[in-house]
Write a structure and sequence with these properties.
alpha/beta; about 35% helix; 16 strands; 3-stranded antiparallel sheet; binds nicotinamide-adenine-dinucleotide; 7-stranded parallel sheet; about 350 residues
Length: about 350
């Protein structure tokens, strides 16, 4: 049995992870400030199992950390608490850097002062750290295109071009090999979290597991937070009879991974302390239009509309190989996109936030 502290544990991934860790006999505590953008009612969510010790507090407050470390003395800290709005991070960088970067530093400082050393820190990092990652020319030459410029997007030039102007395609990321290149503030803060944890933990002999998560979806994701969770947003639109608005030309690529698969990876990481850096996804890239069509069809909603709208800082393609996670954590994603969407559509009408927001 381990004593596990989960920051942000009242959130989407944290509630499911808490339940999974309790079921294998771990003692689970959660530090969470019930952020109003995620928890509009400011109450502990029903999804958080009753056997979890809930500690209200803010990860940016050293005082919150001191109290929770003294009370819990965790063997493992799973760090999930974060500001997660990618687009929002461009307009509110202080808020994102404050919680994600300073909040992580506050944890390390509190660990120094508490003289308590967990054996292992587990970070939910993000595929966002890669930005647009690596692309390849038709001849197979790999290059890093960097961020798409505003003028490019305004002209509707969605795909990256090879350095000679020819066609190019995205290459799935491989943690440790693909060079991180954040293209938005949120992504920069997630990469900073990785660097902070690694630097401190190496000096202190503590293990760090970094899981770079792709697009996680599933029952329990906030239905009211319009800044995150595109599949959840599509499901909400379709369930209320709306037309799903698909950005760019619909060919944005993402890897949608079901929450229980991510939780299985996190549980395996908690159980096996080590220094590791792995990508966690389904390993099966899909286009945003394909997802929108699956959701709309399953709901009997109108056909999605490809609008040509776009967001600054959005990457064109994100997917990964999961070989390292399979080797390190025996990770094998089990839920197909169709089954995962069905689970979301079954759950959403039962969500009190969905009903409170007018369905
Ligand atoms: N969901 C995804 O698709 C995805 C993808 C990549 C990475 N991640 C990472 O996984 C982690 C969890 O994501 P999620 O989808 O469960 O998010 P979520 O928004 O559902 O949960 C985050 C939780 O953190 C809490 N929180 C926010 N600010 C806090 C603060 N200052 N102090 C204490 N608690 C605070 C919120 O109240 C919330 O309960 C995040 O670090 C995120 O960056 C998520």
């Amino acid at each position: 049995m381990s004593r596990v502290l989960i920051t942000g544990g009242a959130g989407f991934i944290g509630c499911r992870l808490s339940g999974a860790l309790l079921s294998i006999g771990d003692d689970v505590a959660v530090l969470d400030n019930l952020h109003p953008q995620v928890h509009p009612s400011r109450t502990v969510p029903d999804d958080l199992p009753a056997d979890v010790r809930f500690v209200p507090g803010d990860v940016t407050a050293v005082g919150s950390w001191a109290a929770v470390l003294a009370a819990v003395r965790p063997d493992v800290i799973v760090h999930l608490a974060a500001e997660t709005g990618t687009g929002q991070s461009l307009t509110e960088p202080t808020r994102h850097a404050g919680v994600n970067v300073v909040g992580t530093a506050a944890m390390l400082e509190a660990l120094e002062h508490s003289h308590h050393r967990p054996a292992h820190l587990v970070l939910a990092s993000s595929r966002a750290v890669y930005g647009d990652g690596a692309w390849a020319t038709e001849a197979g030459e790999v290059f890093y295109p960097g961020q798409r410029h505003a003028a490019q997007l305004e002209a509707g030039q969605w795909d990256h071009r090879a350095p000679d102007g020819g066609l190019a395609h995205a290459v799935p990321s491989v943690a440790g090999r693909t060079v991180p290149d954040p293209t938005n503030v949120y992504a920069a803060t997630k990469l900073a979290q990785e660097h902070l944890l690694n630097s401190w933990a190496q000096a202190r002999g503590v293990h760090v597991s970094i899981l770079r998560l792709q697009n996680v979806y599933g029952p329990g994701q906030s239905v009211t937070n319009s800044y995150t969770g595109v599949l959840t947003f599509f499901a909400r639109t379709a369930l209320t009879g709306g037309v799903i608005d698909v950005y760019e030309d619909g060919q944005i690529v993402r890897d949608f991974v079901f929450v229980d698969d991510v939780v299985a990876a996190a549980v395996a990481a908690v159980q096996l302390p080590a220094n590791r850096l792995v990508d966690i996804g389904s390993g099966d890239p899909t286009t945003i239009l394909a997802v929108a069509e699956l959701v709309a069809t399953a709901c009997g909603a109108p056909t999605p509309r490809v609008s040509g709208r776009f967001r600054h800082g959005d990457v064109r393609a994100a997917s990964c190989t999961i070989d390292a996670a399979t080797a390190e954590l025996s990770y094998v994603p089990k839920t197909s996109l169709a089954d995962g969407i069905a689970a979301v559509l079954e759950w959403m009408p039962t969500s009190s936030d969905f009903r409170a927001a007018g369905g």
